[in-house]
From TrEMBL:
Name this polypeptide is given: CBD9-like protein
Pfam families: CDH-cyt
SMART domains: B561, DoH
PROSITE patterns: CYTOCHROME_B561 (PS50939), DOMON (PS50836)
Length: 493
């Protein structure tokens, strides 16, 4: 009779567990999800999901989307008394701290709280099929999700849903298979098919699995092949089955309606018995090794172009005064342009691979690249017409002011690039400070040289002997200073 009861209970437990898919994308972090049959059929309705992590983490978060920007995020941290959890639904509009969302229809369910050093939030979401910035298809076989956590700092202990949180030190994007998540109509399937949190390793875990005990618990009845080894305990009942010795989650943490009683137990489905079931990393939350190398090359080349070569060429044409100075200026600017073309190509390739072409940094980089395309044309027209008329024309001012705008914008965009790299885990505070200081000094020197050059030009124009020439701007004749044939708009020798 006991055996029959155990078999029936095992079947009921397996049926309940089949409704919940569980993944552990990192050590000590576990997420579970259930999509009721009605929601899976219509695409609209309630879904249930769970987040679980150690209480010494400041926070843990699960989000819908393939990257942080535009995702529907649910952040969990301990409440002020340390005995419960705070659920904070948030929206991420950019690679900044997500903001609290009042539009989310979420409810904390039974089973949520703090127990045995872990915080758990069982959540019902009634409008997770769409949010401001995205949508989800629960009729599909899988969905894209992101997760993040701040694993240090200790419990947050805050009741505010809009509390400021520290930057994550662990995050990734993944595709979550719904093969084991669909079905049922329970008001709280997460409670009825509870799965102890944890994982044996950093990859995704199997559906409805438990972490393998370690130490003495592992040696008492656990085989290296993954199943629990039967241990003889008395002559009458035969092998005794029960929860693994040293069950790490305490009373009440074992699955409800579990198949074992005081005398029998089934083989345990440990998380390391399956290879990343239901979990497929997307790799879109940060750059790969090759992308990191290209990012470093992109940043270095762009910084050289806008902080060194472009400003130096502009300073030379303002302060130097010798025949052929215009060609020195042109050589600097053409070389800087070629360097930036290489940086631009790398940047577009990386941004496209990371789905970041809509971020501020790449957009400004594209604008700068287009503007620079016209600079050599405007420069040629300016120089040719200046030699002919010995005065500035429309093309002169177009070349001068477009150059000033582009160099300034390029330097600012370099700072934005450092900020974007920081959101991807590649930020270097010391590098950003060094860039800002050097770029700021060079920009000030360049501005000072421009002001000094203009001042010296005006003074030379006033002191110069009269020389009348036809002006292209009117039929009147203007007094202009003489310039050498190879001069640009440098002062007279």
């Amino acid at each position: 009779m006991k055996a029959t009861t155990s078999i029936i209970a095992s079947g009921l437990f397996a049926l309940a567990s089949a409704q919940v898919a569980s993944v552990s994308p990192a050590n000590d972090i576990t997420f579970r999800i259930n999509i009721p049959q009605d929601t899976a059929s219509s695409g609209n309705g309630d879904i249930f999901f769970s987040l679980s992590a150690p209480t010494d983490y400041e926070w843990v978060a699960l989000g819908q989307g393939s990257r942080m920007s535009g995702s529907n995020i649910f952040v969990v941290y301990t409440s002020s008394d340390g005995n419960n959890v705070t659920l904070s639904p948030r929206l991420a509009s950019d690679y900044n701290q997500p903001s609290f969302s009042k539009a989310a229809q979420v409810t904390l369910l039974e089973g949520s709280g703090v127990s045995n050093g872990r915080m758990t939030a069982n959540v019902k979401c009634s409008n997770c099929q769409s949010w401001d910035g995205g949508s989800a298809d629960f009729k599909a076989d899988s969905g894209n999700w992101v997760y993040a956590a701040h694993t240090s700092g200790g419990p947050k202990n805050d009741d505010s849903q809009s509390a400021s949180i520290s930057k994550h030190d662990e995050r990734d994007a993944f595709s979550w298979s719904y093969a084991s998540a669909k079905g049922g109509d329970s008001v709280n399937p997460l409670l009825n098919s509870a799965v102890p949190s944890g994982t044996a390793g950093g990859g995704g875990s199997a559906t409805s699995c438990v972490p393998r005990p370690t130490g003495a618990a592992a040696s008492n009845g656990a085989s290296s092949s993954g199943g629990a080894t039967a241990t003889k305990t008395d002559d009458n009942d035969g092998p005794r089955h029960g929860p693994p010795t040293g069950w790490p989650y305490g009373p009440g943490a074992s699955p409800t309606a579990s198949p074992w009683d005081h005398n029998k137990r089934q083989n345990v489905n440990y998380c390391d018995d399956s290879a990343n079931a239901g979990f497929t990393p997307l790799g879109s939350m940060g750059p790969s090794g090759n992308q990191r190398t290209m990012l470093i090359a992109h940043g270095t080349l762009a910084a050289l172009a806008f902080v060194i070569f472009f400003p130096m060429g502009a300073i030379a044409i303002r302060l130097a005064s010798f025949p052929g100075v215009v060609w020195l200026h042109a050589a600097f600017q053409v070389f800087a342009y070629l360097v930036y073309i290489a940086a631009f190509g790398l940047g577009v390739y990386i941004a496209n691979g990371l789905n970041m072409l809509d971020r501020y940094h790449p957009i400004i980089g594209i604008v700068v690249f287009v503007c620079l395309f016209f600079q050599p044309i405007f420069g040629f027209l300016h120089h040719s017409l200046f030699k002919k008329y010995q005065t500035r024309t429309f093309w002169s001012y177009a070349h001068l002011w477009l150059g000033r705008l582009v160099i300034t914008l390029g330097i600012i965009n370099g700072g934005l690039g450092f900020m974007l790299a920081d959101t991807m885990g590649m930020g270097s505070r010391s590098g950003m400070i060094a860039y800002s200081v050097i770029a700021g000094i060079i920009w000030l020197v360049w501005v000072a040289a421009s002001v000094f050059g203009e001042s010296r030009r005006k003074k030379a124009r006033v002191d110069a002997p009269p020389k009348y020439t036809d002006s292209p701007r009117s039929e009147t004749r203007e007094r202009e200073i003489p310039h050498p044939d190879e001069g640009h708009y440098a002062p007279q020798r």
